[in-house]
């Protein structure tokens, strides 16, 4: 056993995540977005998502929580909600061109800030390794994290 045990992953990641989220909020505000709105825009890619419930599950939100977020995004022309021709009860959610523009601008501002942060504290090799490891871990299915 090492002389000084390393900290648990959650003990390192959770405070880092909170700090990064706090740093993103002013940038999102500059683009007229809340964190939930940004999460919605990030999840909607080039193909429509079939149902608000599927979107809520994908971003880890209660489906009732995002109703107002979706209404606001639609009112602002950032997303569209249209009936599915195959099932009129289902609403297809999609980014509009303006939604894509806003998402890209907000994400660019956030990632520029992140790049400056990483450059101040990590060597180029450390940045590459960190981002690769984080990308790998973030794509693991949740049940693989809870299986002993």
TrEMBL record:
User: Carries keyword DNA-binding?
Assistant: yes
- List all membrane-crossing ranges: none
Classification via InterPro entries: HTH_MarR-typ (IPR000835), MarR/SlyA-like (IPR039422), WH-like_DNA-bd_sf (IPR036388), WH_DNA-bd_sf (IPR036390)
| Alphabetical list of Pfam families matching this protein | MarR_2 (PF12802)
Q: Which GO terms describe its molecular function?
A: DNA binding; DNA-binding transcription factor activity
Known SUPFAM superfamilies for this protein?
Winged helix' DNA-binding domain
Keywords (alphabetical) are: DNA-binding
Task: List each copy of the HTH marR-type domain by range.
Answer: 6-139
The Gene Ontology biological process terms listed for this entry are: response to stress
Carries keyword Acetylation? no
Q: What is this protein called?
A: DNA-binding transcriptional regulator, MarR family
Which species does the entry assign this protein to? Answer: Actinacidiphila cocklensis
């Amino acid at each position: 056993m090492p002389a000084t045990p390393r900290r648990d992953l959650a003990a390192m990641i959770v405070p880092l995540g909170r700090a990064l989220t706090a740093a993103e909020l002013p940038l999102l505000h500059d683009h007229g977005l809340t964190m939930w709105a940004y999460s919605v825009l990030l999840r909607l890619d080039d193909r429509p998502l079939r149902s608000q419930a599927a979107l809520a599950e994908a971003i880890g939100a209660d489906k009732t929580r995002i109703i107002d977020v979706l209404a606001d995004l639609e009112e602002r022309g950032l997303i569209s909600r249209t009936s599915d021709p195959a099932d009129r009860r289902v609403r297809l959610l999609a980014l509009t061109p303006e939604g894509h523009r806003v998402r890209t601008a907000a994400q660019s501002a956030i990632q520029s800030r992140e790049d400056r942060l990483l450059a101040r504290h990590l060597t180029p090799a450390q940045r590459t390794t960190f981002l690769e490891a984080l990308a790998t871990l973030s794509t693991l299915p949740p049940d693989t994290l809870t299986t002993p």
